[in-house]
Amino acid sequence: MDYHLSVAVFFGTIACYNFVKYGVEAKKYFLVANRYHKNIQFVSLIALGFALYHCYFFTINTWIGIFVLLFLTGLYALPVLPKAKNLRSLGGMKIFLVALIWTGTTVLLPVIAVNESFVWDVGVEGVQRFILVLILMLPFEIRDLKYDAPELNTLPQHYGIESTKRVGALAAVVFFLLTFMKDNVVPFDAVSKAILLLALGVTMTRTSKNQNKYFASFWVEAIPLFWLGILWGLQLVI
What we know:
single chain; 238 residues; 72% helix
């Protein structure tokens, strides 16, 4: 891993997320009125400063990758379509764009940063990451059924809650089995993804339209951190 990339992505994510979540919705990208948004803006600017400092150490190829991902993030957040506010407002497309950005940031960009080649195993990991993010977004899609406009045509709106949960469970199995498509199957990677498969299965089982307010916003959000903890623990044991 490239240290500067890790730090830049961490702080850059804070700035980008707050821009997408608060700046765009308020339709005031820089000038904000209330104290609540000013505090968020202050934290975001500090995070952006840390990110830009570490971006100084990037290679040209890393910068190209960053700009591509920023462009995709802009498509997600900014009004670029004539009949839709942004790609975020197109529910059926939203989750795939988010999964693509996550995959590019957490799998492809680290490979570019250390000048490694895109071997088969990187491609498999990329597909797995894309599937994982899609699965993690389904509880949010189901939760937001009561708020989403019908024209968004999200997966739960189109296929129903139970069918969406079954798709998520099946995708979790595919996510795990793809591990064995790699040329180099690392034991702690396979074990960690087996545990992650169980966590995803429980998540799909317990997901509902009227879920606890912390279910998606805390427990589902925490699954990547749970996975990271498993990896760290297994590396000490295996």
